[in-house]
Amino acid sequence: MIVHILISIGFFFILMYLSVNLLGLLVRGLFTNPELDRLKSDEKTHEFIKKEIEKSQRADKWVNLTALVLNIIYFYLLFRIWNIGVVAVAVLIMVGRLPDLLWEIKHGKKTDPKLMKKNILYYISAFLPWATLPLLYFSLY
Length: 141
Prior knowledge:
141 residues; mainly alpha; 5 helices; 82% helix; 0% strand; elongated
């Protein structure tokens, strides 16, 4: 029993690491950098810089597409190797991390709980990943 709990906790941290990083790769590609857009549309910007910005934005689209494919493969492998419960845990971890990630993108710095609004979404996003631990245990055993 104790060994199963320890395995579940270890697997939970692996799932959290993979889920958060795959989500971050996908979500960050969905938002453009407003500074680059401003530079691209400015008439004073040199043509070389504009071309480099276009290359960067094209590369961002490919990274975003790659991240989407990696997420689909990730969910498929979790389902194929384990079961739908483990996939649900990974999705819930991602859902719990999404508000923090959007805050980081909006403010351009790491999440600071002191600066974030303490509304119901804050508490749900903080609690949700940890609430998936029992679901993971019951999905594995």
